[in-house]
Amino acid sequence: MNQHHPLKQKHYLPLNCLKGVILVLLLGLVACQSGKQQSQTLETSGETREETNLKLQNATLEQSNAKGELLWKIQVDEAQYSPDRKKANLTAVKGNILQDGEVVLRVKSDYGVIDRDGAEIFLRENVVAVDPRNEAVLRSEEVQWQPEASLLTIRKNVRGSHPQLEASAEEGKYNTREQTLELTGKIEATSEEKQLQLKTEHLIWEVPKQTIIGDRLLTLIKFQDKTITDRLVAKQARVLLDKKQVIVKENIEYKSLKPPLQVATNEIVWHYQTRQVYASKPVQLIQYEQNITLTGNQGHVNLADNMAYLQGGVQGISQANDSKLYSNNLTWNMVAQTIEAYGNVIYEQNQNPKLNLTGEKAVGTLVDNNIVVTNSDRQERVVTEIFPE
Question: Which CATH number characterizes residue 295's domain?
Fold first, then answer.
């Protein structure tokens, strides 16, 4: 075959001359006969092209913007164009999506459509998109890529995975410039080898920052093996995956099953891996099996060691024995049910005998009214008031 035969050269077919879209035919010139068919299609007049569909096999397609920057480059088993060359149906799609000269997504799917002269790409069935910059993998049955918006719109059962997180939802949007994934509808996400589970209706996953932001009612569940140990419900939450922390705000309901404890406050920081809860605002602790309630202006609960520490305006109440304890600070052993209170201690017992004790320190158990009040650091008498029947 002659060295200068046109079939031995690459062919470039514009999708739209005004936008300078380039279709590069790199494959499909394997056999001489198939090469003749493609050559004839390419060499037909413009008028004929308007009336016939162009079909390419084993082709590589690419598109650049007005600056000549490559936007995407894909390989297909077959591409069939509409008469105006502004739309093409694709089979067996595989390729790269670029941004500022860098590959931001590696994609593949069973089928696809190039629409609006390459301004949109639709991928369908067994869609996989991988961001090589952060190892995020997105799967779905249908996605839409918009180069100008740097946006991958994901439809029909989104599934995202990453070394730190796995998530599923009804729909999603992935912004490749910001590397953020927005999920909506029946969201379930798991982390820490499925030891932490999150359920909500809307969240934003900032992949490089290793942060999840939930702005609607959500539930977080902590597992130890397959047993639930902690459950948290709140209106807002920020999960810091790298620090193993959850910052929770607004109407928080936190419940530990072992030890049995409920935490109510408006803001906490939960170290879910070590089971530490920090509250910088007024907090209430409820031991629901023994009907013990403790409140304070600030608190730290160490669920791993079954200890709680409260500071500022502390109040302890035993519902079963109708007794109250007030102090500046308090330490509570949730298993032994023992307390140590410090600073301006007041103990009130309303059962027989009724009494009121004041001092600087108190130790004992609220659940059975076994409290001893002393002035440990000063040689002052403990003030005791007994109220006879």
Answer: 2.60.450.10
Residue 147 tokens read as 């180069």
d(CA 85, CA 101): 26
The series of mean pLDDT values per 10 residues for the chain, 389 residues long, is 32 36 33 31 32 82 89 94 88 95 96 88 96 96 94 94 94 97 96 90 96 95 91 94 92 89 93 94 92 95 96 91 92 93 91 82 87 69 45
In the chain, the N- to C-terminal Cα span, in Å, equals 120
Residue 350 lies in a domain: yes
Q: What tokens appear for 14 in the block?
A: 């514009």
CA distance 354 to 281: 33
Indicate the number of domains in the chain.
1
Q: Look up the domain containing 321 and give its range.
A: 282-389
Tokens of 355: 């009494």
Q: Give the global pTM.
A: 0.78
Geometric angle at alpha carbon 23, from 21 and 28, rounded to 5°: 175
The widest CA-to-CA distance across the chain, in whole angstroms, is 121
